[in-house]
Amino acid sequence: MKITVLSGGVGGARFLRGVREHARGIPEAEITAVVNTGDDMWLTSLRIAPDLDSIMYTLAGENDEERGWGRVGETERVSGELRAYGIGWPWFTLGDLDIGTHLARTDLLRSGMPLSAVTDRITSRWDLGVHLIPATDDEVETHVTVEGGELHFQEWWTKHRATVPALGFVQHYVENSTPAPGVLAAIADADVVLIAPSNPVVSIGTILGIPGIRAAVAATSARVVGVSPIIAGAVVRGMADACLTAIGVETSAEAVGLHYGARSAGGILDAWLIDETDAAAVPALEAAGIAARAVPLWMRDPATSAQLAADALAL
Amino acid sequence: MKITVLSGGVGGARFLRGVREHARGIPEAEITAVVNTGDDMWLTSLRIAPDLDSIMYTLAGENDEERGWGRVGETERVSGELRAYGIGWPWFTLGDLDIGTHLARTDLLRSGMPLSAVTDRITSRWDLGVHLIPATDDEVETHVTVEGGELHFQEWWTKHRATVPALGFVQHYVENSTPAPGVLAAIADADVVLIAPSNPVVSIGTILGIPGIRAAVAATSARVVGVSPIIAGAVVRGMADACLTAIGVETSAEAVGLHYGARSAGGILDAWLIDETDAAAVPALEAAGIAARAVPLWMRDPATSAQLAADALAL
Q: What keywords does the record list, in alphabetical order (chains A, B) (predicted)?
């Protein structure tokens, strides 16, 4: 059974861990993650790929569960030096182990390898059980339109904690980007395509904005099942509400489901998994042509994540 | 009093610390170090400048005195990751604090700044008391000719500990390089030019090989005083003997002095400071037109280094 998951970073990583756990019971299960790269950037001459790394560390069991991101047992010796030299963003601290990953990635990229091949090489260090493919090998950068100009997404997200009102999001160079090798086939040949409970605007939205990917999702013979990142009108993690507000979508499981839309009506969803507390939204979603089901959505631990994956696959 | 020192890394750093110490007693002393960059290289997409860094760390009081090189209190978290990813040279470990310096340098270079401006910016973090100028802003790389081919200098030096017989040294691109801004003026306008007790072949030899520098040393109105890196037929540190053998020069204070040669005979030296144990070489050096003096050369601590600097300046 071929399972393809469109995913952002931290939330997608937990979901993928659940999918992997659940798939242990499925004969010949193959899991592919198509990962957002819109948050990637060059910082102090290092190529940083936050979502790819969050997923890699989480699936490798190397993430810091307490903090929720980055490597466990991390230190910040290099960043301390960069601050002392006045180089880089003082509010954006990279861990030493994390810098090891960025340096390895940067060196392979500079040798001429595309990001997808670099990702294969870097992830081969661990037995992840999931094939990670960046949505594109091209450098697509999400910027945030704010009053008076534009901020890099990380500046808006990490420095300003999304408190500067966003007027919109721009994915620079996205119109000239192409899906990375394997992305379209992973969607077309899948038995099921899952949309992880990731940020609908800057994570899933960026993936779908790469020319060809939305059409592949629309055309696949696989069932497309999404999982809501919104529970009871609030984001499970991150600041997706600020992103949704900017594009005029209400922060609710129903509104996000309708924003993605039914495949039968030109959207991307066959089915939409929402939390029990949002059960009242089922009729409106069903009326729009989206099969909706209310289940416990909180991924408190690997077991509940696996149950959520099972629910998504059952839908 | 303007003092200009041509210098390699570790030995030159100690000597420069002595010059700075001694110069505290000289009104309006200005010390400039013209530093070898032939050992510089790109490694895992980082620009590494071993000699500039050895001098900077030593003058900043940040070097590891026990080990003799690198930063005190160093750790190797990033290099551990690079090894796990199979990236870089497993036998060439970069410390975390050191990587902070390399990343800062790399980022400034990639922004378009020449190495000399980058060095000004990086060294401004500390009150070094010495102006460091790379001998050239161009990428001149020392390679070692060995039986059957060529090795990068660091591969020969660090991996093979100079045990593979060197047939010669090649400074790639040196013929097209130019002295960094300030280098020729620092030599021409100096009151005294000192040749640090550094490797005569790959450190001082590389500096002198940059078109224009040897001629500037030959033409300066300053007195040019060298300090022998050889004591009693042995190198004080490093493996300069292997380098000298490769170019057919005996490992002795006398042979190195004669290799540099008297300015009056087309060489670069007015005077040559050798160790007491080598006093027997004085007549031969004097006969060749080089004022020679035998003094204690061992730089055991800052005080003896300062005394050596005083002796060199007195000569």
A: Magnesium, Transferase
